[in-house]
Specification:
Blueprint (H helix, E strand, L loop, with lengths): L9 H10 L5 H11 L13 H10 L5 E8 L5 E8 L4 E9 L2 E5 L3 E3 L14 E4 L2 H17 L18 E6 L9 H15 L6 E5 L3 H10 L4 E5 L5 H7 L8 H14 L4 E7 L1 E3 L5 E3 L4 H11 L4 E7 L13 H13 L3 E4 L13 H8 L1
Parallel strand pairs: 4-7, 7-8, 8-9, 9-10, 10-13, 13-14
Antiparallel strand pairs: 1-2, 2-3, 3-4, 5-6, 11-12
């Protein structure tokens, strides 16, 4: 395997470059390109063409490279299928929104959590990603924003035609970030220090690993925390999210509110609305009847949180149905009546299989 220059320290990079008979300042130039996310040596325009060619023979730039890039039809969402050095594949998604450019990164190749509605977990967990592998996903998005030649790209929702920089990060791609918590923390520290992305513009989403949440609390940075709740009772939650057998709903919420209250942040609650095929063929609501809405309200009443209602993105291998818009609104109305902040998540990039691990899964199936 060729060495990945992004993984080198400055001293290692200098040694590598001088061993190639190059002057020292080339190492600095290459580092600048790597920090900007240059996907290949060809794009390092201030290096002599012969050096670019020589480097290409002996080294890689980043620890990830793009194998597929899909654009949503509205031009606002770009999804990348990335390959790692050992051939594992991960996904990351760039979303151009009215408040900035948000990147959704993966924290693991695959996932061990086994949630019944999710595509990412179908092939199990392959391995944790390194700090550099997580960070490189941001670089891929940043490079895309700065070098994207799609012209004209549709005017962004805020009317700004300029692509700008990555401004927000959500650790909500494939994998359970709190099973890889040290590397996720390392990644966030780096995104903050090297890319200047504020703590408050970074969100980590978890299915509820209590010790991991506690580690975030003692780490002490005021990032946003999102809990994938998806059910208001232990009985139902354990059925659709096996992790609930280990960390029960109340313990998860207590740990999460301890985190968010420490930082005076709003806790984000993710709640996918699921139905199953009923006996007469009609969808039967699984976790979103009015009774569920009342129970969810009881759990959250008086707390500083926002419930994100997420229409389920169809995963062919999974036997759920997305409830009708009416059912979603009925559920939301009850939460609102009970004083719970709630919104319905806009679906982005549905037409490019942007939902949670679908691209990787479909590619693995060939
Ligand atoms: N493991 C972490 C982060 C990755 S999943 C977690 O569980 O939070 C990111 C979010 O997408 C979670 O809320 C997850 O439950 C949700 N999700 C998974 N599959 C989905 C699907 N098919 N449709 C809609 N949301 C899905």
């Amino acid at each position: 395997m060729k060495p990945v220059l992004f993984n080198f320290t400055d001293a290692q990079l200098l040694e590598f470059i001088t061993n190639m008979g190059q002057p020292k300042f080339r190492a600095r130039q290459i580092r600048d390109w790597l920090n900007r996310g240059a996907p290949n040596f060809e794009s390092m325009k201030n290096l002599p063409i012969t050096l670019r060619h020589d480097l290409d023979l002996v080294a890689e730039t980043l620890p990830v490279h793009v194998v597929k890039k899909l654009e949503s039809s509205d031009g606002q969402t770009t999804k990348f299928l990335l390959e790692l050095g050992d051939g594992e594949q991960i996904e990351c998604v760039l979303m151009r929104t009215s408040y900035g450019n948000s990147v959704c990164v993966s924290s693991q190749a695959g996932c061990a959590m086994g949630c019944k509605f999710c595509a990412s977990t179908l092939l199990g967990l392959k391995r944790n990603l390194t700090v550099n592998e997580i960070y490189s996903q941001i670089l891929v998005a940043q490079w895309e924003l700065r070098n994207d030649m799609t012209s004209p790209r549709p005017i962004r929702p805020n009317g700004d035609a300029n692509n700008g920089d990555v401004s927000h990060i959500v650790v909500m791609g494939t994998g359970e970030p709190l099973q890889n918590v040290d590397n996720v923390i390392g990644f966030i520290e780096r995104a903050n220090s090297d890319m200047g992305i504020g703590w408050r513009k970074i969100t980590v989403s978890t299915c509820g690993i209590v010790p991991g949440i506690q580690q975030l609390t003692s780490w002490g940075r005021p990032i946003n925390l999102a809990i994938s709740l998806h059910a208001p009772t232990d009985e139902l939650r354990s059925r659709i999210m096996p992790i609930n057998n280990k960390y029960h709903l109340n313990d998860v919420l207590n740990a999460a509110f301890e985190f968010s209250e420490l930082h005076n942040r709003q806790l984000m609650i993710e709640y996918i609305l699921l139905a199953v095929p009923g006996e007469n063929g009609d969808p039967e609501l699984l976790n979103c009847t009015s009774e569920h809405a009342e129970k969810l309200s009881d759990l959250l009443r008086g707390k500083n949180c926002m419930v994100n209602l997420i229409p389920w993105n169809t995963v062919n291998e999974r036997d759920f149905i997305s409830p009708s818009g009416n059912a979603v609104h009925r559920f939301q109305d009850i939460l609102i009546k009970n004083g719970i902040h709630t919104r319905i998540r806009r679906e982005r990039g549905n037409d490019i299989g942007s939902a949670c691990g679908q691209l990787r899964l479909n590619n693995a199936k060939g």
